[in-house]
Amino acid sequence: MRFFLLPLLAACESTTTVANDTAGGGGDSDTDENIGDTEETGDTGDSADTADTEDTAADEPNLAWDVTGDIEDLSFSLVSLDVTHDFAMADILVEAEASERIEVYAPPPDDQLVQVDGVPGMYYAFFIGGLHEDDGDGRWDPDETWLGAASQMSVYIDGIVPPEVVDLGLHLGWNALILGGESDIVVGDPMAQPLSIAFTDTLTVGGTFDDTVAETDWVTTVSFALFSGIDAPALDDTDLEGGSWTLTLDGEPPASHFVDVDANGSLEAPELFLAYTENGEGWFDPNVDTPLGFACVDGLPLVGWWIAPSTNITDILFMGQSTVSLGWNALAIAGDEPVFLTEEEANSAVLSTGCVID
Prior knowledge:
- This protein has helices at 6-12, 16-22, 28-32, 163-166, 343-346; strands at residues 63-68, 74-82, 88-97, 101-104, 114-115, 122-133, 146-149, 153-159, 173-179, 185-188, 193-196, 199-200, 202-209, 218-223, 237-239, 245-250, 269-277, 290-297, 300-307, 326-334, 337-340, 349-351.
- By secondary structure, it is mainly β.
- It folds into 2 domains: 2-196, no CATH class; 199-351, no CATH class.
- Strands 12, 13, 14, 15, 16, 17, 18, 19, 20, 21 and 22 form an 11-stranded mixed beta sheet that branches. Strands 2, 3, 5, 6, 7, 8, 9 and 10 form an 8-stranded antiparallel beta sheet that branches. The protein has a 3-stranded mixed beta sheet with strand order 4-1-11, with no helix packed on it.
- It is elongated.
- Residues 13-57 have low confidence and may be disordered.
């Protein structure tokens, strides 16, 4: 994730001389005169502690989030990201009850600011706002999962700000950044950062079938684990009478449905949707029933994909900047690249013997 820094560092590469001249070449004592705004702001302690910011709080908020979604039983935390260790989750600066509007009044403490490489006197710190489960104590605990991350990074800048950085639209104090690659910085509004719940507990898919499948046939969910010989019972099953079908994936799937799809140690639970001829009784039995074909959307196999929430907010940073959700997602398989589907697309699938998995 160090690519977040590259545009900023690129703008600073030619500013070393400017920064030194501005500081008067006086070493640390001169540089310190330019970073006095963040002194004595308290100690954050461990990751569960919140900095004591009462003495430095401003009269008006200078950082805020507009929150959408079901926030019942959730709390908000502003989490420091360690730029020296690939943006690892670090201290928590602010904790608050989740609400539709969350505001921050204080700067971070000195010990969370890092000097920009090659630019003496310029300091910064990266943060991300997130929503997490809460057992009622108002604090994030290591076993509580994150269900939403802001779509913008909060960046605090202190000290000397070179002209090249000012030209990017950045300034002293709090900034909001949307970073879109290795050469692009988009500056957001630090007082209007979007933050939404990125969790879908229930997914409904459906559609029709072509003439290779009959109304007397059935449709079921099929876990990827089944292809590895693992007994993974279907999550839903229905007949095709009436010419259409609907299946629902509700809640976290059983442990037997989780597989390491990419062989990287990350367990996920993908489900396919299979038309079959019922030869036995009850749920789909691959040893008895006759598989016909899968459900496709525009010729691509439809998949319901469960992405488990994480206890580390850095695992879900991309959620705030994409259509991907924690929990259930509907997607189509297009080679190695998944295509995430809208609700309407996920309910326009066609069951056919011509829909196969390579």
